[in-house]
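ok trying again, last paste got cut off:
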Amino acid sequence: MNTLEKVISIIRKNMSSEVDVQEDTDLRKELDLDSFEALMIMNAIDDEYSISLDEDEFKNVSSPREIVSLLREKYGIHEV
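nice, full thing came through this time. structure:
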């Protein structure tokens, strides 16, 4: 499973309802992501990659693709 697939899987698992998540899905506009779900997703990503995401940076990403870009650029996480 590549980074994008992992991020999408984490998002799906941490949403309060079943959702269709694609790489460019806008988490806030299309999925109505609330602050609790965002925190759960952040924590799950932190655990998966042994990092500590910056909450302000996470607030500025809107899609799984942007989350992956943040992980690559700031935290050096690349495909395995």
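cool. The two ends are 9 Å apart (CA to CA). Residues 35-49 form the longest helix (15 residues).
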